[in-house]
Design brief:
Length: 426
């Protein structure tokens, strides 16, 4: 029996904030044959369990909870008649843009797309990636899993909590567990700085008197059936535990907030080039990957701190995917964008300079905390802009716009470099 192939102009994989924004933009750009595939039973992605506020300040100019933010895009998508199919797991994506998926309702299906938008989001780094010694007892959760238990399913993971890592989800769960009646004993961070937003450090730790131990890590886990405690120690500049600095915490729960990893198994299967720095795809300023017609956006491309940035980036990816599906191809010279001093994982990694290109946003994270330094963009070593920044920190994504004037200045350049410098470049 021959397989039934469903032909589609633009196929979006993922119905979180990135996938929804991309689908809305593609629809606005004139694509009617558009399908969104989502493995969960409801659209909205991770925002469904993020019941705290603080979302939408940039995009909507008001403070929303995660579900409220997601619902706005869900409502818009349905009002526009976008075909969102939930409960569908994508098994593979091929280089020729054939997507194999499976669902309870329809079994195995194959989609043939003119353009694909990858918007699968990211996952949390598990305990197995940390190599922490100790028993494999119950009571150890990723922060996102604990968030799902508390906010969506109504279960409390534990009552006496230690959090390893100061990523935003961990900081937010410190406050959430406290509000639910648990005692959060400490938040422990390996690096000498927090990896979360400064506002979350203030609102989720300091406001509740929860201590933050910088340059510390968990060196042992105690308990047979259930976690009974952890040993924390200070680390040196090489991140090795310093003998004699051990602190014992008696607890029944350890939450891990130790980083997020883009869900790029499908991308790799399609032959998409991945960045060793971001773990996401290498893309041009249109968010197109190394495979023509396959675009990437949101946390599957690089891990964001603000969903507003995810939406803005994904609107562009959806619009560009629509243009590709409609037969539009860009004409212009490709210029690589490089990480300079102090910069990690600048996205996009290349810019196609063409007539009429008005603005490109370069996004990256600093490699450490910098105070009163200059953010400088170079074209072949010549500064295009150099602006002083009060603070640059790995916990907050830096967005550096390149305007039309800057883009025109570098149209003949061999490479563009973004760097953090002590002195203003002239």
């Amino acid at each position: 029996m021959s397989e039934l192939t469903i032909k589609v102009d633009v196929l979006v994989i993922g119905a979180g904030p990135a996938g929804l924004a991309a689908a809305i933009a593609a629809k606005k750009a004139g694509v009617d044959n558009l399908i969104v595939l989502e493995r969960e039973d409801h659209p909205g992605g991770i925002l469904r369990q993020c019941i705290h506020n603080g979302f939408g300040l940039h995009r909507f100019k008001e403070e929303l909870t995660g579900p409220e933010y997601a619902q706005r895009d869900i409502d818009t998508a349905y009002e526009m008649g976008i075909d969102i199919r939930t409960g569908v797991t994508v098994l593979s994506v091929s280089k020729d843009k054939r997507v194999t998926a499976v669902s309870r309702e329809n079994g195995l299906q194959v989609f043939e797309a003119k353009a694909i938008v990858l918007a699968m989001g990211c996952r949390e780094r598990p305990r197995g990636a940390l190599a922490i010694p100790g028993t494999r007892c119950a009571g150890i959760y990723s922060a996102g899993t604990a968030q799902k238990f508390v906010n969506l399913e109504g279960y409390m993971p534990g009552r006496k909590v230690v959090i390893l890592g100061s990523g935003d989800i961990g900081l937010i769960m410190a406050r959430r567990m406290t509000l639910q009646g648990a005692k959060v004993l400490a938040c422990v961070e390996l690096m000498p700085y927090s990896s979360g937003l400064n506002r979350n450090i203030v609102q989720c730790l300091q406001d509740y008197g929860i201590p933050l131990y910088l340059s510390h890590t968990v060196i042992d886990i105690h308990g047979k059936e259930r976690l009974t405690g952890v040993t924390v120690a200070k680390v040196d500049e090489n991140r090795r535990p310093i003998p004699g600095t051990e602190i014992e915490f008696e607890c029944d729960t350890l939450l891990l907030s130790v980083g997020l990893i883009p869900e790029n198994e499908l991308s790799a299967g399609a032959g998409v080039e991945l960045s060793p720095v971001t773990s996401g795809a290498v893309v041009s300023d249109t968010l197109e990957t190394s495979v023509p017609g396959i675009f990437a956006c949101g946390n599957v491309l690089h891990v964001h701190d603000l969903v507003d940035h995810v939406s803005n980036e994904s609107f562009r990816a959806g619009e560009m995917a629509a243009r590709y599906a409609q037969g539009e191809r860009r004409q212009g010279r490709e210029i690589p964008v490089k990480d300079g001093a102090g910069v990690r994982g600048v996205v996009p990694q290349k810019i196609v300079v063409e007539e009429g290109l008005q603005e490109v946003n370069l996004m990256f994270r600093p490699d450490k905390v910098y105070r009163d330094h200059y953010l400088t963009v170079y074209a072949d070593g010549k500064p295009l802009s150099s602006a002083k920044k009060m603070i640059l920190t790995p916990g907050e994504m830096v967005v550096q716009p390149m305007n039309e004037k800057m883009l025109n200045q570098c149209k003949d350049a061999r490479e563009i470099t973004v760097a953090i410098t002590e002195q203003k470049a002239v």
